[in-house]
Write a structure and sequence with these properties.
Strand content: 5-15%
Number of helices: 4
Largest sheet: 4 strands, antiparallel
Number of strands: 4
Distance between the termini: 23 Å
Shape: globular
Order of helices and strands: HEEHHHEE
Length: about 80
């Protein structure tokens, strides 16, 4: 699977699992994304896909590296709708 395809799948999953805030942006907690069974089966390296999407300015989140447990409450915000 190529990176572009994985990033587009990630956007779909953020839309599926996330909620829209007052500004109209969709966000999801890292812990929700990481614990989702479909995401676990879909993404071999979720953190790597998140980093690729962040580099492409498709999503944003605080910090550089997200770790399960430690960063479960970090919001992943979709920048492009």
């Amino acid at each position: 699977m190529n990176v572009e395809h994985e990033v587009s799948l990630l956007v779909e999953e953020i839309r599926r699992l996330g909620t829209r805030n007052a500004d109209g942006q969709v966000s999801v907690k890292f812990g929700v994304l990481f614990a989702d069974e479909k995401c676990a089966n879909l993404f071999e390296a979720l953190v790597g896909t998140l980093k690729a999407a962040k580099r492409r300015k498709i999503i944003t989140y605080q910090g550089e590296l997200l770790l399960q447990g430690v960063h479960d409450d970090i919001d992943i915000m979709l920048l492009q709708d």
